[in-house]
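Query structure, 179 tokens:
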């Protein structure tokens, strides 16, 4: 339904919209195989909601639409930090797109959109700063480096098995961070 709605907003024909909706409905990650929720199922829905509201915001100039687009986009970033570089680029794109209409309202809507996204991300950024010492949205990089690469390096340097190195890395991590 979201794909069909987005297609209507973008001006595609009913035939193209139905085809896109069926393709999206039967995309392997969109088909629920099990009970647990996976980010691959949630992220596309949040992405479609964000883009739909963003298109509405560019046409209506309503603060509500810009805020809801920022809300869905921020939640999408928390679910799957795939769009880490997009907020600044999207904000600039919105500004350029709206500048043809009026300068001040475009700045206000872009600022509002960025503030909503930042307010959603702020608690997670603070958590990662305290836990890993970085203002990164994703904590996968540091933990992957510590637990996977760290175990491999430790096993080579200390000449122990990978399993022993994994236990060493985990205990050192716990001792040094308390996590």
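Result returned for the query:
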């Amino acid at each position: 339904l979201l794909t069909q709605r987005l297609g209507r907003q973008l001006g595609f024909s009913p035939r193209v919209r139905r085809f896109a909706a069926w393709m999206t409905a039967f995309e392997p990650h969109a088909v629920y195989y099990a009970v647990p929720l996976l980010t691959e199922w949630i992220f596309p829905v949040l992405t479609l909601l964000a883009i739909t509201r963003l298109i509405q915001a560019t046409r209506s100039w309503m603060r509500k639409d810009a805020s809801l687009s920022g809300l869905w986009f921020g939640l999408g970033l928390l679910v799957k930090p795939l769009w880490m570089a997009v907020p600044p680029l999207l904000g600039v794109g919105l500004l350029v797109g709206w500048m043809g209409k009026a300068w001040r309202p475009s700045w206000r809507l872009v600022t509002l959109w960025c503030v909503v996204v930042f307010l959603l991300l702020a608690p997670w950024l603070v958590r990662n700063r305290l836990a890993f010492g970085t203002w990164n949205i994703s904590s996968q990089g540091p933990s992957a480096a510590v637990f996977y690469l760290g175990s491999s390096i430790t096993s080579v340097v200390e000449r122990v098995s990978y399993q022993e190195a994994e236990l060493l890395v985990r205990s050192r991590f716990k001792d040094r961070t308390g996590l």
